[in-house]
């Protein structure tokens, strides 16, 4: 058996050594920043797919619309090479996908691995979405929608390309030193996929403004995913676990599971490590460690959902995290952003889009309450925080069996913990003003908080 394994490895190495390079220039590609290279790049990819080859580029800037990396192909974006996204939304074909928890047709990403096996997008070059035109479109549509009570629909109707999407694929690598910048929407979206590695990326979406919904890395109803060695500056959540929204997410019912996230610096975001708000399919066996956040990230550890989402989370392990000036160390909000989270179609709307109907499908109350349990958090160092905890769930489905160890938190306020059962703290140091303890709901069950650091108060009634 050992000899067979060695032989297989030698054969694979030989195949790799013989794999040809396919130069985009040979297919008419021009790195002048002006010529549209979509067809040339795709032709090179299609040729490389026949030999499990590598697509390469001479130094330059290659304007392009959506491209599709095929099975066996490595798209190599070397130092000195920029793939520059087209500003024309028509250069991103509409395709079946999932967007923000809903299955619907949506523009393809700039770089797509779509229903493929063993592919890679690597190199020390740049993938630049040039996304400001799409950000401006979003803000204009949202300005029109909000007075009509359609805040919830604006994210779905303002079509914007993601930067890199791995969809329904297996054995994919992204990274190797890539700079990912100015994405029109989410930056790296891993959806319905498995055995995916995102290792060695710098993400900067805050050039030419702060792009709306420019998440860093979204892992969406996928399994066996590794995220490592990332440096992230975005204008929404940085590291995000997702699993579907409301009735549609409950129908699909695919969890995100077996995920490791490690060695990430978040410089700017709306949330550091985030679960939700699309929680419908659930989360299992998630570990995140060696993360660092600073004062440009308002919440370090964030669980968010809504009373129509449903879903669950269990066996979640978060540890060795440093926060410097991060305002809120940990937040749990099960009624997040109601204007966005709850879809209600105004009576005067004619010809209701199909995805609006899907989003407005009622979810029974019992099915809509997300539940989280068996979460372990340890080795957390936080200084300069405004609040240590801002935690509230549902009285009917409390947050169960959260374990905390080796917390060292310095904050101006303790905050509050409500709807918590079986929470245990050990070796915890809370450096709080004497008049600002953690307020613990009277119906919660918590042990091990340092004496004098908490006070029991009646919990607010939750939905």
UniProtKB/TrEMBL annotation:
The keyword Hydrolase applies. Residues 22-75 form the Rhamnogalacturonase A/B/Epimerase-like pectate lyase domain. It holds the Pfam family Pect-lyase_RHGA_epim. InterPro entries: GH28_Enzymes, PbH1, Pectin_lyas_fold, Pectin_lyase_fold/virulence, RHGA/B-epi-like_pectate_lyase. Keywords: Hydrolase, Signal. GO terms for molecular function: hydrolase activity. Residues 1-19 form the signal peptide. This is Glycoside hydrolase family 28 protein. It comes from Duganella callida.
């Amino acid at each position: 058996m050992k000899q067979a394994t060695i032989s297989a490895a030698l054969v694979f190495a030989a195949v790799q050594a013989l794999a040809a390079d396919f130069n985009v220039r040979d297919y008419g590609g021009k790195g002048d920043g002006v010529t549209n290279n979509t067809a040339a790049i795709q032709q090179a990819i299609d040729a490389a797919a026949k030999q499990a080859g590598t697509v390469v580029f001479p130094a330059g800037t290659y304007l392009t619309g959506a491209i599709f990396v095929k099975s066996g192909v490595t798209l190599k974006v070397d130092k000195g090479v920029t793939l520059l996204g087209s500003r024309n939304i028509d250069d991103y074909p509409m395709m079946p996908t999932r967007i923000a928890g809903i299955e619907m047709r949506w523009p393809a990403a700039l770089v797509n691995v779509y229903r493929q096996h063993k592919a890679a997008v690597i190199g020390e070059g740049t993938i630049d979405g040039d996304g400001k035109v799409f950000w401006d479109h979003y803000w204009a549509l949202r300005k029109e929608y909000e007075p009509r009570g359609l805040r919830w629909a604006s994210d779905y109707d303002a079509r914007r390309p993601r930067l890199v999407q791995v969809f329904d694929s297996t054995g994919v690598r992204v990274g190797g030193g890539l700079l990912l910048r100015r994405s029109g929407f989410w930056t790296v979206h891993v959806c319905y996929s498995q055995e995916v590695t995102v290792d060695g990326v710098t993400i900067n979406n805050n050039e030419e403004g702060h792009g709306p919904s420019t998440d860093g890395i979204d892992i969406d109803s996928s399994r066996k995913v590794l995220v490592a060695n990332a440096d992230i500056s975005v204008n929404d959540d940085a590291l995000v676990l997702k699993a579907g929204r409301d009735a549609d997410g409950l129908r699909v019912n695919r969890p995100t599971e077996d995920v490791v996230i490690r060695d990430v610096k978040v410089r700017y975001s709306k949330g550091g490590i985030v679960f939700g708000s699309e929680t419908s399919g659930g989360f299992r066996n998630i570990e995140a460690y060696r993360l660092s956040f600073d004062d440009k990230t308002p919440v370090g550890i964030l669980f968010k959902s809504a009373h129509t989402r449903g879903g669950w989370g269990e066996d979640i392990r978060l540890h060795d995290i440093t926060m410097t000036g991060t305002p809120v160390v940990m937040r749990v909000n099960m009624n997040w952003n109601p204007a966005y989270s709850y879809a209600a179609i105004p009576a005067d709307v004619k010809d209701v889009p199909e995805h609006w109907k899907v989003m407005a499908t009622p979810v029974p109350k019992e099915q809509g309450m997300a539940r989280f349990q068996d979460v372990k958090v340890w080795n957390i160092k936080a200084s300069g925080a405004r609040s240590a905890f801002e935690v509230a769930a549902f009285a009917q489905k409390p947050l169960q069996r959260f374990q905390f160890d080796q917390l060292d938190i310095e904050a101006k306020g303790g905050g509050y913990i409500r709807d918590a059962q079986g929470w245990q703290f050990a070796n915890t140091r809370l450096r709080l003003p004497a008049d600002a303890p953690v307020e613990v709901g009277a119906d919660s069950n918590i042990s091990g908080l340092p004496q004098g650091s908490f006070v029991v108060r009646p919990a607010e009634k939750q939905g």
